[in-house]
Amino acid sequence: MAAGGGKHGPLYAAAGARVTVLDLSAAMLELDRQVARERGIDLELVQGSIDQLDMFGPARFDLVVHPVSTCYVADVEPVFRSVARVTRAGGVYVSQHKSPTSLQASLEPNAAGRYELMHELARREPLPPAPPSRLREAGTQEFIHSLTALLGGICGAGFAIEDVHEPEHADPAAAVGSFGHRAALLPPYLRILARRQGAATVLVP
Ligand SMILES: C[S@@+](CC[C@H](N)C(=O)[O-])C[C@H]1O[C@@H](n2cnc3c(N)ncnc32)[C@H](O)[C@@H]1O
């Protein structure tokens, strides 16, 4: 989900999965088409948005892999509700999100080499535009989502969270103001492993 670009889909397909790649961008899906052609891999490519998965039947997928993209939608509730509908009971949902605290903070350090909290967690409107960097993409609107919206939202949609991880990007030797320096103070991402609840997961004593 939001996984176009010729990386995720081909990797899972090469590992033996039957893979569907969903992305909003035809250009990103074209990269998957190219890699699939070059490697002789079979991929289903679907253009669409993460918050509208009506093209897929219920319980269609065993595993949903969802790289960073909830920041691009104003409301995550329809995203998690849609994923829950298309994931079979006992199936797994792996998602990565921009951390709310990182999005709240300044992109550049102050004179003391520290980052300042700039934006309210409850901010509804998109963040102000920023120059392209590893933290902010060009030409996008990005929204802050609280941990309540992300973790609580995934649980509320019918998943049980089994693991939460902040991928390691800190670099103690990095120059002040670099991605690695900021990541040591503000982990940029949150990765969540969740399992769809339902009849298939009920344990018999
Ligand atoms: C940060 S990238 C993550 C995937 C990336 N290809 C990678 O290699 O990790 C964000 C992707 O999300 C897609 N995207 C953004 N908003 C989306 C939406 N509402 N629905 C589906 N895909 C979306 C973009 O087209 C882009 O391919």
Task: Describe this protein's structure.
The protein has 2 domains: 48 residues, no CATH class; 143 residues, Vaccinia Virus protein VP39 (Rossmann fold, 3-Layer(aba) Sandwich). The mean pLDDT is 95. It is built from 6 helices and 6 strands; from the N terminus they run H-E-H-E-E-H-E-H-H-E-H-E. It has a 4-stranded mixed β-sheet with strand order 3-4-6-5. It has a two-stranded parallel ribbon with strand order 1-2. With 205 residues, the protein is of the alpha/beta class. The radius of gyration is 18 Å and the shape is globular. S-adenosylmethionine (SAM) binds next to loops.
The profile of the biggest β sheet is: 4 strands, mixed
Number of helices: 6
Name the CATH superfamily classification of the largest domain: Vaccinia Virus protein VP39
Coarse shape: globular
Helix content: 25-40%
Estimated radius of gyration: 18 Å
User: How many strand elements?
Assistant: 6
Helix and strand content put the structural class at alpha/beta
Strand order of the largest sheet: 3-4-6-5
- CATH fold-level assignment of the largest domain: Rossmann fold
Between the first and last Cα atoms, what is the distance in angstroms? 36 Å
| β-strand amount | 15-25%
Which regions contain 5 or more consecutive residues with pLDDT less than 50? none
Level-1 CATH class name of the largest domain? Alpha Beta
Mean pLDDT: 95
How does CATH name the architecture of the largest domain?
3-Layer(aba) Sandwich
Bound molecule kinds, no repeats: S-adenosylmethionine
